[in-house]
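Sample entry (291 residues):
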Amino acid sequence: MEKVYFNGEFMPREKVAISPDDRGFLFGDSVYEVVRWYGGYFFDMEGHMSRLQRSLNEIRIGWEDFAGFPRIAEELIHNNDLGDACSLVYLQVTRGAAPRTHAFPVPPVKPTVYAFARRQSIDTFTSERGITVGLIADPRWDRCDIKTTALLANILAYQNAVETGHTEVCFMRDDLITEASHSNIFFVKNETVYTHPESNRILSGITRKQVISLAADNGVPLIEEAIPAGMLPYIHEAFITNTSGEIVPVLKIGDMEVADGHPGEVTGRLQSLFRARVIAWGKEHGSRGNS
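Predicted structure, serialized as tokens:
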């Protein structure tokens, strides 16, 4: 029986009852976070906590038990017997339940907090083989830096990509590549790595930050600069990053094959460096990734 966390309690998932007046349900007035458990520790829980705090601050939700999330996440892992399994913990915080109106409730109500943990291994086959991604004009709002659950534009774009044979879809705005529907995207030209700088147009990915750090620590040239769509035929490598998939090579963008259609050397090196950092993180933090 799957155990989840709901408003201060751990309980069977079937026992959760969310009010029909909850603003997350009515408006998508909520944020979320996803952290990976590597069969004994969480990777960069501090980074996830920082991003969660920022998202909560940006939409002005106060969650009194915010600091307890690492404990909640670890308890979910063990309550569901996932201690040795590669898994993900999902957390969602909504503004709470109140009669429907666009304005925030006055006085404020307690937020609704829901979290679960589920087994999800790294798809090593895809990481080695690579993927193809679609390419469309960015349909989203101007606050992509907030990790909100209001993801309809992402969902519709991603579904269209799946139906046309792609694994992901990346967006362009003002002819510049921003990011993908649930990933950040990087490009390599002449052994220099490029990725869109932090702004309201992209989500600041945790794996993205790790890749930038790894590049700096290992002499890999990296520039935070948006790539024009017109440059895509001339890039030598591309890859996406996210918490669930880590680093995944991109072999084709829309109708354009990336270089020779095979994962590149810079991508492979960064994959190896990331894997080494994950292993080192586990050795440092032992069985408690939030320490």
